[in-house]
Amino acid sequence: MLEPRPDGQRTAMFYTDRNPRAAGQADRVDSARPVKDPARVRLPQPDAALPGRRHNCTVCSAVHAHDDWNAEARGETPLQRADRAYGEVLQEIRVAQTGVQILFAFLLALAFQARFVSVTHPQRVIYAVTLMLCAAATALLIAPAAFHRLVYRRRLKQHLVEAASRLALAGLVLLMFSLVSAVLLIMDVIFGTGLAAILASGTLAWFITWWFALPMWSRIRHAAPDASSRRQ
């Protein structure tokens, strides 16, 4: 269609079925609409349906009983509580690893000493038992790190915390026996078998008292009547 211009000439204007004013408004709306970042779009995960299938899990159901108490007392969600618990377990393992690493290094170097050839057969047996106990304790104390790596991004933090706690406790038990066995070996070389056995027994009783008896006594003494209030 030709329309007149102010200078007397005619110009051609072509119209389509689309209203120009409405088209301009639509363009402005589209330009104002935020563009989604592809990197931030949540994609369905292969284990997205796992939480719904864990209601029959004994670990998850046991933890759920303390969610209300932790939310009220600490203001934590179950996931935040699991993260805190795992961090506490790792701190405890770091303390135990210092002792087991020092003992393990000492035992490995002991076999290459010049006087090691003069030890008796019973002493060699004690040394072998001590070395194996120390190696087993090292494996258990490092196991939580391997467990975490294998279940990473599988939404199994509650299971990770439960397994790490049991592995750390078992590692402490083996560390205690390895330390007592090391004391028995050294005392046998210095004083003989009789006195070495007495000193090793006293060392074992000392470890049991402070590592296990005292915490259990405190746990039983301060146990609350309500089971939900016993959770840390």
Task: Report on this structure.
It is a single chain. The longest helix has 35 residues, at 157-191. The model is unreliable at 34-53 and 227-231 (pLDDT under 50). Helix 4 runs antiparallel to helix 5, helix 4 (78-110) runs parallel beside helix 6 (157-191) and helix 6 packs antiparallel against helix 7 (193-221). 17% of the residues are buried. Helices cover 66% and strands 3% of the residues. It contains seven helices and two strands, in the order ββααααααα. It has a domain at 79-177. With 232 residues, the chain is mainly alpha-helical. It has helices at 20-32, 58-64, 67-73, 78-110, 121-150, 157-191, 193-221, and strands at residues 2-4, 10-12.
What's the quick description here?
By secondary structure, this protein is mainly α. It has helices at residues 20-32, 58-64, 67-73, 78-110, 121-150, 157-191, 193-221, and strands at residues 2-4, 10-12.
